[in-house]
Amino acid sequence: MILASLVVCLSSLAADTLQVSSPSGRLEVKVWIDDGPRYAAWFDRKPLVAPSVIDMQLANGVMLSSKRNTIRSHRVTQVSQSILSPVPEKRRRIKDEYRLLDVRFKEPFALQFRVYDDGFAYRLVTSFKDSIVVVKEEARIRFPGKPHVYIPLVAKRIHTDVFHTSFEELYTFARMDTLGKGRIGYSPVLVVPESGSPKIGITESDLEDYPGMFLGGTEGDGLEGVHAPYPLEETLTEGEFPQWIVTKRAPYIARTKGTRTYPWRVFIVAPEDRDLPGNDLVFRLASPSRLTDTEWIRPGNLTDEWITDINLFNVPFRAGLNTASYLYYLDFAKRFGFERIMMDAGWSAVTDLFKPNPAVSMDTILERSRKNGVGLSMWTLVQTLEKQMDSALDRFQRWGVDLIMTDFFDRDDQKAVNLHHRIAEACAKRGIMVMFHGSFPGKGFERTHPNAVAREGAMGSEYNIWGDKVTPQHDLILPYTRMLAGGFDYEPGLLNNATQKGTRPVAGVVTSAGTRCHQLAMFVVYDSPMQIFSGNPSEGMREPEFMELVGSLPTVWDETVVIDGKVGEYLVTARRSGDDWYVAGLGDWKPRDIDLRFDFLGAGQRLATVCRDGINADRYAADYILSKGQPVNAKETMRIHMAPGGGFLIRLEANR
Q1: pTM
Q2: Strand, helix or coil at 230?
């Protein structure tokens, strides 16, 4: 509900300069015309974004920067409202307060700037009568001085162009002017100015019927937007997981309606590092939910067998892709409070969802699922799901499946983006939630389609299968970068843990870098309404008290408070679910002590369940201490030691 909407008089520095500030006045954006639209931003009166370029070129030769395209009108509107999220990743009620600068041009173009206290964004608007072809959108962003940037640079694959990526790269930290022309990364990226503050997260929101924007180097003091051209011809690869590979692209990026808005170009402003993980600006900018009924959407926790390859032990059957193993997973889930199990790749033929694995009896599994009160979630290859969409989703609905995963998009051109929307809509019609893997970060998609409850788009636990890329430092870059564009499915919970010098066993025993409590803390520190426990249930059976804690953790939150943190080093987050609070911390390879204050609790006493690194966790990373029943109130401080690659989790229960 909009509480206030008023027109504010503009004060101009010059006849052609417009300006708009955030509600607090700390953040200011100025817009003017100089061979096309230009803008710059200041924070606390200091330059934040240097003069930067906005442009759009259409196939008929019309350009936003045309010399005859002058400003026709402009106005500033102040908005104060709140958003109630049906699937709250960070908080249930979200304040949405900003000033909007709306600039109309002589040609059928407009520019809109929203300026918040914690960032700003702009988007293009067109109002052509007929459909249009967008040849190029120009976004050249410049910064003062010699900034650095955290950016996930895309590694070009053999036999494909650079726009084929699973969006699972390590973040590179580099001085911006060392990024060569042609090197691109997907967003979000994090810009670190020479002074170190404020940091600027750059991404986009409200991506629909348009390609996603990569960001590339300019060999100078800025970044430039790069979009995948529209796919004209594709070929289906062979192999275990066939994919559509673009073999010919158009000389344009989109064919679209002439009257529409375009994605927001988002700048998140963080005076302190801890301002980043809790930021929800991308969600605020996205289009509102298209579902009138969201009561059926039930986020929660589940298990998955992909990472451990169903390497069960201490069981009276041969473990693998078979009925007995899935029944074991269902019994494990019932015992420890997991609401669903994922039946991952291999439950059916990858290329035919109606050709079940002969070793898997769906009737038997469905019967145990109903008996245990544990749901089933089904993995699909997106190319197969697209081909069998209606019939497959109808069958899942008959089975009572309320969550599917679909995998291996590996693109964000206009066609791939539209497919995400089609799948979410088709699932919603049948009361099915969906998680996207091998997919770009959400960028507000989850606000528009609340049944899209999880998204990959990050290098997570599965990379422990193949090597040692995933480190505690990487784990502590993600919440300050990737998480700015929405939650991500990391799939924590590995129960084999290694020190920095530790070995990584092979032969199906997947080991994570860092301590057991490091893995545990991710369930609270990382945003994801569908949290997947990826550890081995046979190992979990030997530690019932620990697994009961994991299985009891909420996945959506009424409130989030980021207590402290530094990008790449550590993070401490507190979250409230109902009357209970959960506090979790992650650390890099440096041991550290955290003096944790509980002043966020308010009045009353809580009982704390504490899981922290054990005294020998620096030598044996799976060592932990789990204690219950310690009384805590808002005036107390608790010292927590994090071992190298460590973590902790505290549950604070209200007296009932």
Answers
A1: 0.96
A2: coil
